[in-house]
Amino acid sequence: MKIISVKGLEKSYGKNQVLKGLDFEANEGEVIGVIGKNGAGKSTFLEILMTIKDFDQGEVLLFNENLQKITLDKLGEIRRDISVVLQPTHFYKSLKVEELLKLFKAYYKSNKEIEEIMADFKLEPHRKSYFEKLSGGWKQKVSLAIAFLSEPKLIILDEPTTGLDPHMRNVLWSYIVDYNKSRGGTVILTTHYMDEIEMYCDKVMLIENGKNEMFESTENILSLGYKSMNDFYLSKVPV
Ligand SMILES: Nc1ncnc2c1ncn2[C@@H]1O[C@H](COP(=O)(O)OP(=O)(O)OP(=O)(O)O)[C@@H](O)[C@H]1O
Question: Is Nucleotide-binding among the key words of this record (predicted)?
């Protein structure tokens, strides 16, 4: 089943045209990595898919609903199926980690047990810590735990592993792979780590000059003769 279909997407900030006719598709159960240099428009693209940013031209279908024609009710409905993780912010100033998880469990009406998610994401050492006082990596961990709490159909992650130590990167990827395999969940994420793309993503989209310069399975890209995804990136993207 097609989860996302994007055609000719355009988006400008004032005179700065960031997306210039981007095409993209995601099918149920795919893990797709979006790559490109700093400022290429990856976060902009993801935020449009998250339905938190407008766009100028083109067509975006999410769960077969056209975002330009959708009613507010329908938009609410599809938002319940999507979980997002933005760069960690200081939203939750006065709440402790355990309280935050409880709050979101109630909000999402999640069947997941808090203790299970605490254990999965190894959050125990900071159960009683205030979110705002955590380090960047720990904030990221907690944000990810919250995202998985809602058991969404589609999960959109903006640089989910930036700032995480190698063990935590591993934990996060195990979670993504497991969520994908056991529930058939679809995952779209951005990363600057090409090893993650190579190991875990089914497909990769390279954004360059506002367009999908390449959108292929990682397998097909490597079969073109690149030694690694890093090699592919370095040869395709000018400094
Ligand atoms: N709210 C905004 N207002 C004006 N310009 C913006 C805004 N958000 C992003 N931009 C600009 O749009 C371009 C693309 O930014 P975006 O954050 O989407 O890129 P990115 O590929 O995610 O970059 P990075 O890898 O550095 O996170 C940049 O030139 C950025 O300065």
Answer: yes
Rounded-to-integer distance, Cα 225 and Cα 237, Å? 16
Domain presence at residue 100: no
Residue to mutate (ligand 1; options 9, 17, 37, 44; most atoms within 8 A of CB): 44
The pTM for the full model equals 0.89
The answer to whether residue 61 sits within a structural domain is: yes
Give the CATH number for residue 16: 3.40.50.300
116 lies in some domain: no
Flag whether the ipTM exceeds 0.90. yes
Contact 101, 69 (CB under 8 A): no
How confident is the model over 63-83, as pLDDT tens digits?
A: 999 999 999 999 988 888 898
Q: Considering the domain boundaries, does residue 196 fall inside one? A: yes
Q: Which of 9, 11, 12, 13 to mutate to test the pocket of ligand 1 (most atoms within 8 A of CB)?
A: 13
**Phi, psi for 226 (deg, rounded to 5):** -75, 140
